[in-house]
Amino acid sequence: MPPTGPRRLSLQEIVDGHRRAAFVGREGELALFRANFEVPPEDPRHRFVFHVRGNAGVGKTSLVREWERAARESGALTAWVDDAAESIPEVLAAVAAQFAGQGHPLKALDRLLTTYRRQLHEAAAPADGEPSPGALAASQAGLMVAGTIPVLGALAGGLDPAAVARGAGGLRAVFGGRARQEEAGLLAEPVRVLTPVFVAELERVADTVPWVTLFLDTYERTAPVLDGWLTGLLTPHRYGNLPANLVLTLAGQRRLDPVGWSGHGRLAADVPLAPFTERESRRLLTDRGVLDETVVREVLRLSGGLPVLVSTLATNPGAFEDANATAVERFLAAESDPGRRAAALACALPRRLDEDLVAVAAPDAGPGLHDWLNELPFVAGRYTGRARYHDVVRAPMLRLERTASPRRWAEAHERLAGAFAARRDRAAEGVAPDRLWTEEPWREAALDALYHRLCAHPRSALPDALRAGIDACGQDPVAARHWARTLAEAGEDADSAVLRDWGRDLLTALTDHGPRVAAALGLLLTRAELTDTDRATALVTRAWDHFRAGAAEAALSDHGRAVAVDPRNARAFQGRAVVLRALGRYEEALADLDRAEEIAPDWAWAVRERGETYRRMGRLEEALAVLDRAHAMDPADAVPLGSRGLVRHRLGRHEEALDDFDRAIALRPEYHWALVRRAQVRSALGDPVGALADLDRAEELAPGRAGTAGERGEVYRAAGRHEEAVAEYGRALALDPAYAWALGSRALAYEQLGRTADALADLDRALEIDPQYAWAREQRDRLTG
After folding, report:
1. Which parts of 23-78 fold into alpha helices (H)?
2. pLDDT tier at 634 (50, 70, 90 boundaries)?
3. What whole-number distance in Å separates Cα of residue 51 and Cα of residue 482?
4. Residue 571 has pLDDT above 90, yes or no
5. How confident is the model at residue 185, as a pLDDT?
6. How many CA atoms lie within 13 A of 442 on its CB side?
């Protein structure tokens, strides 16, 4: 076998090498960070947090990137995140992806993030029936429906009499109630649920590497979202124990909040970055071959020591002949070709650059423009497909382009909007319309198209932009924040107060309310000029947000207002039917579904909801017929199959139920609810091996759920493996001490093992938790009779 030659460097590695070679100065800051790896965490001199701060252009990102390289040289596992991640789940996903790329995947966190993304889509899409995390009280019956709703919307129903007799514990037995409550918690409070898993995963990987380092750049933008979370991470016992070999770096323009960080001062090193000293500036100029003292002094005067400007002006020594030259002229003075100068200005317009976008922004430029731009010192992210001008340089270029020729400004943005719209349309191929905002390629292209239309025509493009926001709020709250930031950025760059105000207020509404979008939709409903159709859509979207939060009356009110505004809005009737059904008002729900089907007779979702309603009412044969029709109307929808499977299981038609669950899971391999229900069917058919395999897969998809452990206990008990059943019920109760049904079921296993006293103790405890647990009372009376 011929000897293997040296590994060929990638383009990105070569570019990174050039960047590192060009880095000068900041010796003290580099030494401070490197030395920290030589100090054990137990030493009081060790710092767990570094905060780099300074004005734009002072070189924070460059320094942090050098720190990241130094960390890797010390054997650290590293992750770097900037303001592209606008929520804590996005930050966690970015960290997990980068750790996986270095051979240390955070598997448990990845699984939970996958569940969270799925829930965002399912909860936002009425097509999947009732949102999985619904936590509404069925007031007439006095029962909580939280935990009775399948993952993909197959609604709890068709309860057999024995299950109902077992009260709330019986509901949990049928529907894995604690698991559903945990899922409700994940969507309602993702930070609370995701963060302990993240911390546990950090502890695990920290045992395998010398150091774990996290770098959060552009912190002035993300602090409103991340600040409280980070200080919570550092607070003992809040989310779990952080590994001692974790080092966190923040880089932003402002000081840390003195109130929020007051208790963590001794953990942190404050690293203010001043502009380059004269010595550092001269060193950079010398490295760039700028030796003429007259030019050096002019660079020192004009740059103010900002590294990005020192570097830029160092390449443009001809700029200083004209004392009245603008900053932009000085940036581009090294280029004598007026066409290229104009092209460089035009390429400041897009927020990101690749070769195709360069051709759109500067269609008259000659060949080689893309490569030339990537060599300019103020262009970051070179040859990544996401290159961008530094803000300190881009801002005056945008101002010059906007004021020099408003017509050229508008035409260029229109061309760029068209290019991104074409990308958006290509990215939509094969993606369901109700999932578009959750797909990053589509979302990025759509928001860039929106940004350029707003820059071209701020007022006339605003109504379409606000309509887009209603869709974003309906599909993905994280996408809604990206949308709001796009409005804010377009307002700054187009100098439009209207856009700035909208962007600021919407960002505040979306940031202050976590995953809730009701406040942002309220702004749109009260301040935007919307058509009746748009207003009804916004009301329906807000109604679902209320419903997921357990505010049934607010949800009913918004659905009712939507019906009043647009009497032919089938989604408003369907949504109101779901809320009414959750409250046990079945006949009213059916009346609304009648109206939805009358308006949209070919809409499979409305038909499916009717089947679900019949199932909730215990009208199983009618449910079966309607679910047959729903499946025929949309064979690719897994939900009617899963629902029909449960109905057939309740009717004792286990083989047919198994076939339905098999087909549903084939359509949706991560259909957690169907996996748990199929395990029940397999157990009923005498196949404990298959049932346990399903529960293994369910636990892999959503680890740590009490409901899954309880179902495993049921399988063992049905198979006569009572010791193992007791162990699994115990695991379920460790996860959820208030899991009354697991106590009742464990009592039966104890009875079979001859441990009557333990059985009675479990039944007593179950009745303490749920005094209405009739089945447990019957079992206790039987054992004491």
Report:
1. 27-36, 60-73
2. very high
3. 25
4. yes
5. 65
6. 20
Q: How many CB atoms lie within 10 A of CB 383?
A: 17
* Edge-to-edge order in the sheet of strand 76-81: 76-81, 211-216, 246-252, 49-53, 268-272
Residue 255: count other Cβ atoms within 10 Å of its Cβ. 11
Q: What is the per-residue pLDDT for 214? A: 95
Residues 363 and 690: their CA atoms lie apart, in Å, by: 62
Tokens of 467: 């309509």
Residues 88, 158: contact at Cβ < 8 Å?
Answer: no
Burial state string for 87-111 with b = 16 or more CB within 10 A and e = fewer than 16: bbbbbbbbbbebbeeeebebebbbb
CA 611 to chain CA centroid, Å, is 32
Residue 578: how many CB atoms within 10 A of its CB? 28
Q: Which two tokens stand for residue 201?
A: 């995963």
Is a pLDDT exceeding 90 seen at residue 664?
Answer: yes
Give, to the nearest 10 degrees, the angle between helix 88-101 and helix 107-124: 140
Q: Rounded to 5 degrees, what angle do the CA atoms 680, 681, 686 make?
A: 100
3 state SS of 580: helix
pLDDT, tens digit, for every residue of 732-772?
999 999 999 999 999 999 999 999 999 999 999 999 999 99
Decide: 47 and 211 in contact? Cβ < 8 Å.
Answer: no
Gyration radius from the chain CA atoms: 30
pLDDT digits (tens, 9 = 90+) for 428-470: 998 888 889 989 899 999 999 999 999 999 999 999 999 999 9
Q: Do the Cβ atoms of 606 and 600 come closer than 8 Å?
A: yes
Does the pTM of the predicted model rise above 0.85? no
**Residue 37: enclosing H or E segment and its boundaries?**
none
Q: From its phi and psi, is residue 37 left (phi > 0), alpha (psi between -120 and 50) or beta?
A: alpha
Instruction: Measure the CA–CA gap between 95 and 98, rounded to whole angstroms.
Output: 5
Cβ–Cβ under 8 Å, residues 316 and 306: no
Q: Which two tokens stand for residue 116?
A: 């969270």
Count of CB atoms within 10 A of residue 356's CB?
Answer: 13
Tokens of 152: 């993909």
Q: Looking at this protein, which amino acid is placed at residue 571?
A: R
Supply the DSSP string of 465-477, one letter for each residue: HHHHHHHHHHH-H
Distance separating alpha carbons of residues 216 and 105, to the nearest angstrom: 20
Q: Is the pLDDT of residue 17 over 80?
A: no
Q: Which two tokens stand for residue 231?
A: 């200080």
Report the distance separating Cα 476 and Cα 482, nearest Å: 10
Helix (H, G, I), strand (E, B) or coil at 206: helix
Alpha carbon separation from 720 to 339, 725, 748 (Å, rounded): 83, 9, 11
Is pLDDT above 60 for 155? Answer: no
The Cα–Cα gap between 219 and 114 comes to 26
Asked if residues 688 and 715 have their Cβ atoms less than 8 Å apart, the reply is yes
Residue 125 in tokens? 């899409």
* C-alpha 401: how far from chain center: 36
pLDDT beyond 80 at 315: no
SS3 category, 76: strand
In one letter, which amino acid is 504?
A: R
